[in-house]
Amino acid sequence: MPRYMVERTFPSCLQIPINDDGMKISNTVISNNAAEGVTWVHSYVSDDKKKTFCIYDAPTPEAIRKTAQENGLPVDRITEVRVLDPYFYR
Amino acid sequence: MPVLERDAHLDQLEALVGRASSGQGGIAILSGEAGIGKTTLLRQLASRTRERVLWGGCDELFTPRPLGPLHDIAPQIGSDFVRLLATSDRTRIFDALHSDLRRDAALLVIEDVHWADDATLDLIRFLGRRIDRLSCALAVTFRDEEVGRNHPMRRVTGDLVRAGARRMRLEPLSAAAVEVLAREANRPAERLHEMTGGNPFYVTELLAGGDESLPASVRDAVLARVQRLSHAAREVLEMVSVVPSRAESWLVESASLDALDECLTAAILRDDGRFLSFRHELARRAVEDSIPPARARRLHAAMLASLAERAPDALARLVHHAEKAGDVDALLRHGPAAAEQAARHGAHREAVAHYARLLHHRPDDANLLERHAYECYLTQQIESALSSRRAALEIRRAAGDRIGAGDNMRWISRLLWFAGDGASAATFGDDAIRELETLPPSPALAMAWSNRSQLFMLEGNVEGTVQLGQRAIEFAREHGDMLILSHALNNVGTAIWHHGSFDEGRASLEESLEIALRHGLEEHVARAYTNLASSAVIAREHDHAWRYLDEGIAYSINKDIDSWTVYMTAWRARAYLDCGEWTRATDDASWVLGHPSATAISRIPAAAVLATVRARRGDPEVMPLLDEVRELALRTRELQRIAPVAFARVEAAWIAGRDQRMADELRDAIEVITPRREPWQRGQLAFWMWRAGLDPITDLLTEPYARQIAGDWRAAADDWTTRGVPYETALALVEGDADAVRRGLHILEDLGAKGTIARVKRDLRARGVRRVPRGRRASTTANPAQLTAREMEILRLVADGLRNAEIASRLFVSAKTVDHHVSSVLTKLGVRSRTEAAAALAKIGSFTDLPRGS
What residues of B are in the A interface, CB distance below 8 Å? Predict the structure, then answer.
């Protein structure tokens, strides 16, 4: 399955509280993703919490857009990526 | 013997039957190896349910009976249904079963679907698509090991699972369960699980055998038990074993009652009053395989004689026993009728098998060859169809039958086109006409004219299409041949439409459609809808396009003609793309690309749409998709396949800023379009030549493209706006003044065309536009329902209380278009009524600021 980096910009800060509400949000995202065969691997969040760089495994770019819509998440750009390891040549 | 480790399955199945009783049907698909206990589980379910149980199975004949399971089930439904099954066509049969299952609740079991004929697979698919409105719990079973990757059953299970079917794979028994069974039979459990792999049938056979040493296979276990019976009883078993699945009691009436009782007491056979059957199919096979060949032939000959006398309609079974008895005369006597019966029920694969077997004994029978070829054509076995047609042609020629020869040439022409060899198809099409024109006019000649007319239409030769098409039309009108008339009107209508005579072309196609509908010519109905829809989409006449697409797709789904459903869905993807509904476009396109029966002609347009949306959104995986379908498209040598791929490629290159690639990508389109006189294709080609910095072709271009190339962006944008195509509107607006550019960019933002926006902004900067407008702030584009500008506009009017007709007249579009937008808005908002939509607007309105109109 291809791997994608998804860049998102949030109008206000991204807030996922570390409590039951936060867990609920995460779980909804995960089950919406599963319905389209999408796996959220992990994300990097900018310091001001307005931009995220998320790594996903997904069957197609359309699957990523569909889950983003269901989860109410914005999408700036989807790029297909591969792993490059700095110690590759050692 | 108790049934172990099946409680969870049984609970699920009981719940399924319970829901069916209350009018909400459902499907269970049970799979597992032979002997795993599928039948046992369903028998147990049947004994617990209060609803009626309809039970049928497929059997392992050389060539299965068409609708075999329905023949088992019919007597359980009633004598009217038995009569219907014997005399009616399959549409009536399916409809009758459908209304019966709507009226009275039932558990419907169809066993061993891995052996099903095509008509039975169609029946299962037919029920599957309607199951939620039936009071029916449908349980189908199959053996995993019999169903390879390309087994037709795979497609059916895929369809059923999409329709919500529950899959149940039965697993072998655990060691603990096997131990329980051994303890109940007072036998040692040692090595039993390991030997049997937990297969319940094997376990019971071993436990019933009573041997000290364990037989090495399930076959040995069965035969060891059989060996303990008397000679007379073994003869009964052998007789029953040569009849697949089950034998009518009268087939073994020569046997002594004592011998029969012995088999029943030993629990090897079971007797349900009318039929004798082995307790398990594995046991039947074990016994059948142990019969020496000469004796087997004698047994089959005896069965053939009894069946021919008592059940002369059981054609597939007669053929089976004739073949196994080595009785060629009987085979030739029953084979043709068996083949016709299969074809009549739509079991075309089985008809092919019957004809192939007959041709093995009679290779020079032109009638058989032609029928074989026709059934091959219906099952997409184009190469086999061609070779039978070629053989039939030689035989007809040698016999001096020139009409027969000409008709075969016309068929070869058609088949060669299917095989992708357009040049040879034209040659054979011409030869057929030459041959038949030396004789007085005949339906064969009229069909040859219409066939050549169709090839001219696909080549884009409008004069040729009309000239030969008209001849066919005149003949067909004079002789009242509705099939030829519908076919010829379709060719002529499509050709003249594409050459700019919109109303005239549409009138011919409408007449073709009307004739086909009135006479139930399903393929011709579907073909008429397809050409009406595709012509309307290409001419950006979307109000018409939506009507034809809606009706045509609904018709094809209803008639289960999948290849047409898939092809029209690919055209619907294009219509959604043009109307700015990109998520629906990609849904349709992905569905087509993932469909197991999608052929190249459906994959090509679907891939072009999907790749175009990706490129415009700035998403990855554009070119790999287009590389694959470019090869497919070039092989067909047809404009309608090649042009969409070329346009998708050149647009992707433009968006990606690879301007020097654009001329290259256009080469395919220039080659196929410049010799043609189709204004929409020429207009689009000229537009991209202009964008690529080439000298665009100039004559016979449709208005909006011609205007834009001439620098009249305002007229072009107005034209595109009235056609309801937002993307093209935006591309015209961004050529204009500051206000137009801003409006154009807003439309592109609403469409989510981030890739295109980036490209357009680069061009604006290069043009020296000093302040390239920035996108609206993220908060305003975060429209959670993803409504397009047009949809927002319509939603506002809906919230103001306007009816669709009023909205239509206010926006200068048809009511049908408004219907589409409103239903799209309701879906996106996840609401069911206009009032709820108005409430939803109040919420959206508080944090979005989309422009009114575009």
Answer: 583, 586-587, 590, 610, 613-614, 617-621, 754, 777-779, 781-782, 784, 786
Which residues are CB-neighbours of B132 under 8 A, at least 6 positions away? B24, B25, B26, B163, B164
Q: Answer yes or no: are the C-beta atoms of B798 and B838 closer than 8 Å.
A: yes
Q: Are A58 and A6 in contact (CB under 8 A)?
A: no
What confidence score (pLDDT) does residue B37 get? 92
Per-residue model confidence (pLDDT) at position B19: 93
Amino acid code (one letter) for A37: G
The pLDDT mean for chain B works out to 90
Question: Is the confidence at residue B112, as pLDDT, over 70?
Answer: yes
Identity of residue B439: L
CA distance B27 to chain A (A): 21
Three-state DSSP string of B272-340: CCCEEEECCHHHHHHHHHCCCHHHHHHHHHHHHHHHHHHCCCCHHHHHHHHHHHCCHHHHHHHHHHHHH
B-chain CB neighbours of A4 within 8 Å are 620
> Hey, are the CB atoms on A62 and B620 less than 8 Å from each other?
no
Q: How far apart are the C-alpha atoms of B747 and B789, rounded to whole Å? A: 7
> Which single residue is written with the structure tokens 């719940």?
B15
Residue to test with chain A: of B612, B619, B757, most A Cβ within 10 A: B619
Q: How far is CA A47 from the centre of its chain?
A: 17
Residue type, B557: I
Average pLDDT over residues B213-225: 80
Report the 10 Å Cβ neighbour count for B78. Answer: 11
Specify which residues A5 forms β-bridges with: A55, A79
pLDDT of the residue at B784: 54
> What's the ipTM?
0.83
Q: Which comes out higher in pLDDT, residue B150 or B339?
A: B339
pLDDT at B232 over 80: yes
